[in-house]
Amino acid sequence: MRPKLFLFGALCILLSGSCTTPSANGHDGHDHETENHIHAAEDPATHDHDHETSEEAHASGEIVLPPDKALAAGVKTDTVRSGIFHQVIRTSGQVLPAQGGESCVVAPVSGLVTFNNKVTEGMAVTEGNTLLLLSAKNLAEGDPVMKARVAYETARKEYERMKALLPKKIVSEKDYQQALQAYETARISYEAIGGTQTDDGLAVRSPISGYVKNLMVKEGEYVTVGQQLATITQDRRLALRADVSERYYQALPSITSANFRTPYNDQVYELAALNGRLLSYAKAANDGNHYLPVTFEFDNRGTVVPGAFVEIFLLSTPKDNVIAIPRTALTEEQGSFYVYLQVDKECYRKQLVTTGADDGQRVQILSGLKPGQRFVSQGAYQVKLAGATSAIPAHTHEH
Fold first, then answer.
1. Cβ distance 156 to 187 under 8 Å?
2. What is the predicted pLDDT for the residue at 126?
3. 3-state DSSP call for residue 295?
4. pLDDT in tens, 235-248
5. 20 to 30 Å CA-CA from 211: which of 151, 306, 310, 343?
6. Neighbour count for residue 31 (Cβ, 10 Å)
7. pTM of the entire structure?
8. What is the pLDDT of residue 142?
9. Is the distance from CB of 258 to CB of 242 less than 8 angstroms?
């Protein structure tokens, strides 16, 4: 019995000590009073608004890009408008020299090529400039210029002799006409090359002013009469040939102009801005070719390379009340296209759109945009990168 009484007494002492400790009750009372005091000092409406605003910023998916950073990133905005947009036939083609814009330089005589001055492709030349020299002095066939001069002098003397004897009936009219013909032939041949003869050989000159497009011979090469030596192009007017599929045959009469994009600088050119005009379109396909050529002509402003293959956007029937935006406003994600709308001066929102025809500069929008909305016309990818950050700061703009 004594051990049981001892344990019962120890238990009573412990229970009485825990119930009469003043520090525990005082501490609990202080904490609750302080907590109530802090919550009473806070404005519940302000606390709830900040919480809701932060939740709204994250839930809406808006992108915050301050105006100064947007300006530095090249972000520009514009207003959605409806207007005229042409139906587009997208194809490929080639830039060609316009008719009469090129001239071939051929060898007037046979001989060895000597470049008097440095001649390179792309070099500017003027009409009458010496491109190269042809010489046959050390060849077995002899100098063609000297041979032409000898033939001319011989034919001239024979003609003059016949002319003096004809009135005396010493020579026949037939012999006189043969001498006259031989003289004229020799004179034409000699005058064609005699005036360009120099001490180093026969000078071959540029027939027109322009640029050396192709140089087809090298120093010391032997050429024959009539062989092509170079091509001179003026490049003032160029031709654009579009190869159109036969399925668009019915739409060919409605084509009015075109835009084209070059592969070397990815720039889109408008024929309307280059004084361009439609020359012709084919009425039938050529043998072995299932494409119909459509040909335009335009001014060359020095940035288009003749011979280049280009992407062409043929413009046909115009349509009114169409929403079209610059291609630079679109971003693509897994085959879908998006535009960034400007909510306020520093906030943007990604908008899914459905695209239609593309004329190389603008894209038709079938759905997703309405007139009057503000969108990012340039720098869309910079806005996209700004939205890729994991932390989106809260903002207090009003919707």
1. yes
2. 87
3. strand
4. 678 899 999 998 89
5. 310
6. 10
7. 0.59
8. 65
9. yes
Smallest CA-to-CA distance from 383 within 342, 335, 324 is with: 342
Cα–Cα distance measured from residue 137 to residue 205, given in angstroms and rounded to the nearest whole number:
20
Distance (Å) of CA 295 to CA 271, 279, 280, 292, 361:
12, 6, 5, 10, 21
> If DSSP codes are grouped into helix, strand and coil, which group holds residue 334?
coil
Q: Quickly count: other Cβ atoms within 10 Å of residue 399's Cβ.
A: 8
H/E element holding 239? Answer: strand 237-245
Do 349 and 57 contact (CB within 8 A), yes or no?
Answer: no
**What's the distance, Cα to Cα, between the start and end of the chain in Å?**
82
Q: How many CB atoms lie within 10 A of CB 397?
A: 14
CA separation for the pair 296, 279 (Å, rounded): 5
Cβ–Cβ under 8 Å, residues 343 and 55: no
- CA 89 – CA 281 distance, rounded (Å): 14
Which residue type sits at 282?
A: A
Q: Where are the alpha helices (DSSP H) in the chain?
A: 2-19, 22-41, 44-60, 67-72, 144-165, 173-194, 380-387
> What does the alpha-carbon distance between residue 85 and residue 78 come to, in Å, rounded to a whole number?
18
pLDDT in tens, 71-95: 999 999 999 999 999 999 999 999 9
Query: Residue 50 and residue 147: Cα distance in Å, rounded?
Result: 103
Residue with tokens 């030596």: 229
How far is residue 94's CA from residue 87's CA, in Å, rounded to a whole number? 21
Tell me the longest C-alpha to C-alpha distance in the chain: 185
Sequence-distant (6+) residues with CB within 8 A of 298 are 237, 238, 240, 271, 274, 275, 276, 277
Contact 308, 95 (CB under 8 A): yes
For residue 391, pLDDT beyond 60: no
